[in-house]
Amino acid sequence: MPNKKRQPFYFFMLEVQKKHQNRGKNYSLRQMPEIASPLWATMTPEEKKPYELQAKNYNGSATGGGNIKTCHGIDYSVVEREQRTAQTQEKRMKEDVLQIIKQAILTQNLPHMTFFIMHINYFCESRGKDGNAIFDAAELAILDFSLQDGIKRGMHTFINLEALPYGYTYEAMRHSDETHQLPLPPDTIGHTKIRDALVEVLRFTEDNDENVCAPIFTFDNHVPVIRSIFNEVFALAHTGPIKPDQVRIYPLSHLLFHLKNATTDHAGPAAAQQPFASVFLAEGYLERGTFEYSEGVACEHHQENDRVPFCSQTKIKGWAFAIIHSCAPDLGIEFIEGKHEPINTLRAPQVKVPDDVSVYTATDIASDTNPWNSGSNIFSNTASTQNFHNTSTSSISRNPHNLTSSTVSHASHNTSWRPSTAASIKNESIGSADDFPALPLLRDYKRGKGRGNLL
């Protein structure tokens, strides 16, 4: 239930009551109106202003209303204002990213457009007095790339933190063991202060305009981490002419979504892949971590300690390679190892596969149209049957999901076999069903049978 509204005279009565108590005279609150009223009547408007301000703050606003607070003691009006600010920032971010891509298309500079990707590992997440999250940085990495030139420049450093926040040692140990496994303070391996590192980041991303910082992209759930670190450093010291609200930290999925739409429109029907249907699908594509274990993406420390996927340098290079791999082929850009893709990468041609092309569907695996279930033989001679029985039984039982690829591989010895002739194969009888290994049915897949490590 909200507190009762108070008038300025109420706070004046409390002050008069306290003065009388200091003099040794104790009056109850019921007696105070009679004592304070004559004094209040002789006061000027200027003298009454302090009490009016107290009443305004107590009531929450000039028009009244209860001052309901959160569990952290923060007024709900402040929380609502922050939520409106966050919504405004998100809307501006979406418009800004779209405008960047449109401007690059209009100037025909899309292949050469430079983008910045950043990631920061942290020791622990703590809470400030206002309840906001605070992250103590441990490792920082940033690079710039374009579709035409690939990865161009990069910066990587470990952060020197003197001490952890009080009471967060266990949380820091747990987070470090599960992720980057960097030594905790005071035994950190870094020599760079976070303030100096962010100053170098601003220099790294500076544009033609000295007061404008280019947008910095990172993975969607990592945006609050980088924003918090920037805000914390800016609050403690002035790092230059750029203000905190001028540092734009944007989610990477929005960049990939709009960039892929632009390159697909440029390629037309020749596009190797279709654009993402939503930003969430673009985020899922980046989350795959396709290039996490590629050669030369991690720093030396994480390479030696076998924590390659959690290295900040691995993160930014993997995201850059993923975006280039998705968008650059639409523009006819040739890949260069170390620039557009990791070194020693085995290239595979991108083949467009229609949705309706497959050997068997999930339903066909357990149906009568599948020759494996009907007891038919798809091979043309006994030697092929015996060879398949000797060499492929263990592989199929270990990995039933390779049914289609194994079938196609061995069936290539028979030039008359085609996926579309599966029904006619039932009439051919060269061997019995006992000559072939029993494959798990579709209902067994759900229970884990046939995988080799269950049941």
TrEMBL record:
Residues 3-57 form the HMG box domain. GO terms for molecular function: sequence-specific DNA binding. Signal peptide: none annotated. Keywords: Cytoplasm, Developmental protein, Differentiation, DNA-binding, Meiosis, Nucleus, RNA-mediated gene silencing. Residues 389-423 are annotated as: Disordered. InterPro entries: HMG_box_dom (IPR009071), HMG_box_dom_sf (IPR036910), Maelstrom (IPR024970), Protein_maelstrom (IPR039259). Residues 137-344 form the Maelstrom domain. It is found in: Cytoplasm; Nucleus. One of its GO terms (biological process) is negative regulation of DNA-templated transcription. Gene3D superfamilies: High mobility group box domain. The keyword Cytoplasm applies. Its main location: cytoplasm. The keyword tRNA-binding does not apply. GO terms for cellular component: nucleus; P granule. CDD domains: HMG-box_MAEL. Pfam families: HMG_box_2, Maelstrom. It comes from the Eukaryota. Belongs to the maelstrom family. This is HMG box domain-containing protein. The lineage of its organism: Eukaryota, Metazoa, Ecdysozoa, Arthropoda, Hexapoda.
